[in-house]
Amino acid sequence: MKSINVGIDLGTTYSAVAVFDAATGRVDILKNDIGEEITPSVVYMENGETLIGQEAKDQQAAGNVNTCAFYKSMMGDENFVRYLDGKPFDAEGLSCVFLSKLKAAVEKQNGVSITGAVITVPAYFNEAQRQATIHAGEKAGFKVLKIINEPTAAIIAYGLTGGGKKTAMVYDLGGGTFDVTIAKIDGAQVDVIATNGDHQLGGRNWDKVLVDEIVDRFEQEFGVDISANKEDYTELVVRCEKAKKQLTSVAATDITVRSEGYTGKYTVTREEFEDKTKRLMAETIMLTEKCFEELGGGFGWHSVDEIVLVGGSTRMPQVFDTIQRKFGKAPKTIGGKVDTIVAAGAAMQAHLCVAGSITLTPTGGGMQAAQFGGGAGGPVSLTISSSSIRDVTSHSLGMLAFAGDGASIINSIIIKKNSMVGKPYSKRYTFAGEQLEAYVLQGESSSPYDCTLLYKYVISGMKKGVKNEFTIDFLYDQNGVVQVTGKLASGTPLKVNKSTVSESVSEVIDRLLREKEEAKKRAKVDITFAIDTSGSMSGTPINEAKRSILEFVSQLGDAADKVSLIGFANSSTWLCRDDAPRAIEKAVHKLDADGGTNADPLEYYGKAKGSGDGRILIVLTDGEWFRKDDAIRSSDVLKGSGVTIYAIGVGDADYRFLERIASPGGAKKIDLRQLVETFKEIADTIATEASAAGSYTSLG
Ligand SMILES: Nc1ncnc2c1ncn2[C@@H]1O[C@H](COP(=O)(O)OP(=O)(O)OP(=O)(O)O)[C@@H](O)[C@H]1O
Ligand SMILES: [Mg+2]
Questions:
Q1: Distance, CA of 187 to CA of 259 (rounded, Å)
Q2: Quick check: CB of 313 below 6 Å from ligand 1?
Q3: In order of start, what are the domains of the chain with their CATH numbers?
Q4: What pLDDT score does 311 carry?
Q5: Ligand at shortest distance from the CA of 250
Q6: pLDDT at position 527 over 80
Q7: Which strands make up the sheet holding 572-579, listed edge to edge?
Q8: Is the CB of 472 under 6 A from ligand 1?
Q9: What is the pTM of this model?
């Protein structure tokens, strides 16, 4: 049996499957088991029997409540559940049932076996909706080659110019979603530049206007509320969709309804219908103009060369008329192919995924890909490669970040809406902790409350107590799905652990603010300087040390609440102890160099301060110590009790010894001239660590 890769338009109301045949350069729409090119996306389940498509839709039309339609609009919604045949299904589960049955039907009818599939989604689908579509496809037994945006698929099948250049806009009004997409097309190169839409706006909203109207009229006439009776209501919904379609070609139609023994017959005219649905039409125009606005640079209707109407709902005369009025020219319609063009583009993309390129020739029978269009460049052969089609993101990607005032949290946007997908956006950070958390959101507002919280990433692999420099790469992959990776400045990859968040945005924000407050209290640092005052430090070294300490304290600001100073040579002395930062100024003047280095300031420090986390000891020395082994032992005790030790060497200091007594990464051997700078860096690291709220930092 022939094994094929297909394109699937998984629509809210109707779905289609297509295949590209490289031998003929043709796209064929694959018929289902009853010989139809489009299959209603309806699922029926009762008494262990599962039906999809027309049979399921017939059940729905007969008022059978064991049917489910329009589940696509609930994709990715974890609160949506439908019971069919006693079993609970979410939208992903229903899509999976539908897709596996559709796969079997198409395979049977065409004598093929389907392996891979490109599945289309509305451009405006967000992360959860894309992920749910991928999972549904995989569980239905497809290798999901790629997820592509429906309007982009339409452009692939329709819009290639064969040499010419144009700016094209796809206005896609389907059963449940509205998408507007603008692309620059140059020969076989398609660059989507902007997209906008609403995944809860489509033909079903037009149906609903009729349904509500009839429910009202019936109630007025008989005092009976049809919407209270599930079976009658289900039937009415199907009846109204039919009436809506009739109004596309006739000026008036009758809708007959029965409920509770009453029968009502109501006439609806196209004029009335158009009037009642005006606001829906206006909504699509508003979203279109918003898309122009987001492009900036005065982009408007005049900037577009061609508008293509896609989606079954664009058959409604009001769509054509409104667009023509706004555009000043007639939009292009693709007549009979309006329901299958998206699947055709997806089929071409599927071939592109497996073969790397595809060549379209201008002549040939059937649904030749190029025949969808009639592009400006005329009938020439075209080769499309994988890089020929570049799409953009429909939602901005951001991260929770502390606002400048540190007292509130904002959505800091990292990847702007309409940025190219497949390209990583890198951000550089410094952080003094071992691991941090990042909360990633989708949405356009700087207020996180208006955005969708996607995931929490725990990024680890950094060193504690040192200023880690690293970059994080944020990426919308080719499926429009978010990926986050990180690496240290050294190139070592960081560990990134992704999880979903069970808390709401406001719960997360309240917790982060609380944690930051607590961390701030905790993070008050207790700093001790131990300065070598042996004879060799006299003159410039001791003066530089004094200057460095003063700079350090002023740099640290309110992160430090206790400072102490030890001078050590042949013995150690507290020059100030646990004082307010201001007191250090007086104490440093007492630093006076004389004698050898016979003291162990580490032991001296430990005896007086006892144990306790969060203390910092900064040792500065310029030469050999007599009691090195004692100092090493003392340092181990201190580190074990939670003290962070920095050991800075100048002059003849022994770096290996410094390394041994310092905390990891805390030893430095420097030139005296670098002393002020080095102390500043340490202060910076400490301040960063102190201001980080728990393990969460304001990365944005
Ligand atoms: N002649 C017609 N007049 C008016 N509406 C029509 C007509 N034919 C189809 N429709 C409407 O078009 C919609 C289906 O279009 P289409 O198949 O493009 O959508 P879909 O792919 O199922 O949905 P989506 O793209 O939103 O997921 C339905 O709402 C249907 O009622
Ligand atoms: Mg569609």
A1: 57
A2: yes
A3: 2-201+280-390 (3.30.420.40), 397-515 (2.60.34.10), 524-669 (3.40.50.410)
A4: 92
A5: 1
A6: yes
A7: 572-579, 560-568, 525-532, 615-621, 643-649, 667-669
A8: no
A9: 0.77
